[in-house]
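User:
Note these C-alpha cells:
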Amino acid sequence: MSSDVHTASVDHAFFLPLDGLAAASPHALACREFPDDAFIRLGIQRVLENEHGITHRAEDLRREQRTHQAAKVCAMKGLVLPALVQVAKRASQHSLKFIRWLRRSLRDQLTEHAALPLLRTLYASS
C-alpha cells in the first residue's frame, strides 16, 4: 500500500511555483504600495482560508469591532462609512501569530501537513 501524502515543504508549496514567474511575464511590475512579501502572505492566508478552512476568528471579530466603531464615528459626524471599507480586509495587515507561524514553518521547512495543525493550535488559543 503506497502513501500519497503530500510532503512538500511550505517553502516549496508556496514560493517555488513563483520562481521565474515575474521575470517571464512582461506585465509583472513591482508595486511599491503593496510589497511582494505582503502579497505572498495574503496569498498564503487565502489558501489557508479557502482550501483548509483555517481562519483567525478572534482577529476577525476585532476587525469587525473596529469597522463598527468607525461606522459609529462617521455617523456621529453625519458621514457614511464607504462600503468598500466595511467589507474589505486590509491586505497588508496580518496577525502576529500568523507571521510567527509562517516564519517558523519556513525556517523549519515544515510540510504543509505538519504546519497546519500548529496554526490551528495557535488560533484556538486566542
The mean pLDDT is 77. Residues 57-76 form the longest helix (20 residues). The two ends are 40 Å apart (CA to CA).
